[in-house]
Amino acid sequence: MKLKPLLIGSALVAVLMLVSNPSKERYSYYASEEFSEMGKEFLCSLDIPADGFKQLCGVALPVGKTVLKPVVELLVGQLTTPQNFFLFSIYTTDLGTKKFTTIAAFGNFYMFK
């Protein structure tokens, strides 16, 4: 008789996973945020002696991120291959020099960098 609650619980978890499996559009939004932040961290970590470069990182990059976000989101969507397993999805984004694999489950994304 202990098998019945286990089966019901497993079915409920499966339904929850199925309903909360994020779409490719949500992934594109998430990944564009992640890639933009990675780019900002990289650029701002460069040791460039030019006057005002550090101020540029603090002011201009956030503005550029906002302006370019739709373009980055569209590009991520085109460079991403989704694999939908209904309960979860795996997204592989190929940026040419590097591939990023992300698992999507329970409405969240887990990117392997």
Task: Summarize the structure in words.
The chain is of the alpha+beta class and 113 residues long. It has one domain. The protein is built from three helices and four strands. The protein has helices at 3-20, 24-45, 53-78; strands spanning 80-84, 89-94, 99-105, 108-112. α2 (24-45) runs antiparallel to α3. The longest helix is centred in the middle third of the chain and has 26 residues, at 53-78.
Integer count of domains: 1
What percent of the residues sit in helical stretches (DSSP H or I)? 55-70%
Q: Report on the biggest sheet.
A: 4 strands, antiparallel
Could you say which overall geometry the principal axes of the C-alpha atoms support? elongated
- Counting DSSP H or I runs of 4 or more residues, the number of helices is 3
The total count of strands amounts to 4
Structural class, from helix and strand content? alpha+beta
The N- and C-terminal alpha carbons lie at a distance of: 45 Å
Determine the strand fraction and express it as a percent band. Answer: 15-25%
Give the overall pLDDT as a whole number. Answer: 88
Overall radius of gyration:
19 Å
The succession of helices and strands, N to C, reads HHHEEEE
Going across the major beta sheet, what is the strand order?
1-2-3-4
Poorly predicted segments:
none
